[in-house]
Amino acid sequence: MTDRLKGFIVALEQDIREDDAVDIITAIGMIRGVLSCKPLVRDHGDLMAQERVRRELGQKLLDVLREEPKTR
Fold first, then answer.
1. Which residues contact 10 (CB under 8 A, 6 or more apart)?
2. What pLDDT digit, counting tens, does each position of 34-45 carry?
3. Euclidean distance between CA atoms 47 and 62, whole angstroms
4. 37 Cβ contact partners less than 8 Å away, ≥ 6 residues apart
5. How far apart are CA 29 and CA 67, in angstroms?
6. Sign of the C-alpha dihedral, residues 20, 26, 29, 32?
7. What pTM value is reported for the model?
């Protein structure tokens, strides 16, 4: 039996300006079967998550560079 899809999530490579996204939004909206295409605005939660990932990756890099990696 085949599953039914109700939508898709599209992730952009990087944040872009709202006025630069108009053509992308229009193009997605022109695809057959698309009911709506609404942009998601970056907020403080996104920035916090990005900084946490950056810190975690930085810590892992430091652990690799040390002779004795920290154990958790």
1. 28
2. 999 999 999 999
3. 22
4. 25, 28, 29
5. 53
6. negative
7. 0.62
